[in-house]
Amino acid sequence: MMSNSSNFSAAGAEEGKKCIVNDQMRPFIVLYILILTVGLPGNLLSAWAFVRCCKAKEKRSAGVYLLNLLVANLLFLGALPFKVLKDLGAAPWSLMVFHCQCSAVVTYISLYASVAFLTFIIVDRHLQDRHSAHSLRLQEPSFAWLLCTVVWLLLLVIMVPNMALPTKQVQVQRYLSCTSLKEELGLSWHTLTVFLNTALFLNASAAVLVSSSLALKHLLRSRSAAARRTLVSVTLMALAYVLSFVPYHAVRTPYTLAQTQVIRDCRTRRQLFLGKEATLVLSVLHVCLDPLLFFHLDPAFRGVIQDLLPCTTHCKAAADMRLRTRRNTQEDQEEGGDSSQL
Q1: Which residues form the G-protein coupled receptors family 1 profile domain (predicted)?
Q2: Strand, helix or coil for residue 60
Q3: Bridge partners of residue 182, in order along the sequence
Q4: Mind listing the domains of the chain with CATH numbers?
Q5: Alpha carbons 191 and 185: distance in angstroms, whole number
Q6: Contact, 72 vs 114, CB < 8 A?
């Protein structure tokens, strides 16, 4: 008993010497569980609806981007339980290491794929109102698939080395920091990955800014209802993009400096970690709202979902009945007029 107690005290003292930044995760865990509870059913239903209307997806570039955004969401939702278990401290050591090497990387692949596809959707929504030959070429489904393929390949090239590079053995600990597993080469690649992803985000943000500005400029020249609807749609999506991703990237770079020991003050490192986690939650909230985006932007998807609603089906049947009654009444009136003339 004395030996076990002394070993535990020694382990606690050793852990106390380190700067532990991830020991206050419970509020984030609750939020992640809520995101999983709300987001998983919505995105699974969306996947089913996309399968049902897959033929329609071949005709519109927006459908291609929405489908790839859905794939990114499902990747994130598949990786999220591993993060929850690690942050709870309920995962065995091997699962914690697996999260650091694999599921955490999948999380960030999903995050930046979402950044890219949301940007494409915003730009595509703006181009729908341009009607120029150049914009029509950019809206071809084949071009959309090419863009999406390039995004996935680029992210895999950037991120997969974080899974493949060798790791070092560390002592089993309750609060595992994933960077503590990395060799010097792995830590350098991780830092490079962060800056490359930030560059991707900055380019995407520039495209969102330009599209929003051009949509506003076009509205000032046009008073049509269609132009106004397009502007409202682009503006709302751009606002959601800014609120979701800008705070995270404002914190991400200084947090990376803390990970690489450029920032050594423990209090500052803790604050940066908590800021990174809080803004990461904000960044992934979109997985709960994206099914609404699918419903709003894709008529075929909307039709499949509406067919599931009994009220919608009843209202549609009632509308069809009223239309048939109106047509029958008009035909009776026409026949009555013809007979009176005779």
Answers
A1: 42-294
A2: coil
A3: 167
A4: 19-297 (1.20.1070.10)
A5: 10
A6: yes
Q: Which two tokens stand for residue 33?
A: 């569980």
Q: Taking the alpha carbons of 215, 218, 220, 222 in that order, is the dihedral positive or negative?
A: negative
The tokens describing 178, both together, are 């994933």
SS3 call for 185:
helix
70 neighbors 46 (Cβ within 8 angstroms): yes
Closest CA to 40 of 91, 88, 95, 81: 81
Beta carbons of 49 and 67 less than 8 angstroms apart: no
d(CA 221, CA 173): 62
CB neighbour burial string for 32-51, b if at least 16 within 10 angstroms, e if fewer: beebbeebbebbeebbebbe
Residues 6+ apart with CB under 8 A from 279: 247, 248, 250, 251, 252
| pLDDT tens sequence for the chain (342 residues) | 334 333 333 333 344 357 887 778 889 999 999 999 999 999 999 999 888 876 544 568 888 999 999 999 999 999 999 999 988 887 888 898 899 899 999 999 999 999 999 999 988 887 876 666 566 677 788 899 999 999 999 999 999 999 988 888 888 887 888 888 888 898 889 999 999 999 999 999 999 999 888 877 777 776 677 667 777 778 888 888 999 999 999 999 888 888 777 777 888 888 888 999 999 999 999 999 999 998 888 887 888 888 887 755 455 554 455 555 555 555 554 555 444 444
Report how far residue 150's alpha carbon sits from residue 116's, in angstroms, rounded to the nearest whole number: 11
Beta carbons within 10 angstroms of residue 8's beta carbon? 10
Instruction: Decide: 294 and 70 in contact? Cβ < 8 Å.
Output: yes
Of the candidates 218, 266, 214, which has an alpha carbon nearest to the alpha carbon of residue 238?
214
Phi-psi map region of 98: left, alpha, beta (phi>0 left; psi -120 to 50 alpha) = alpha
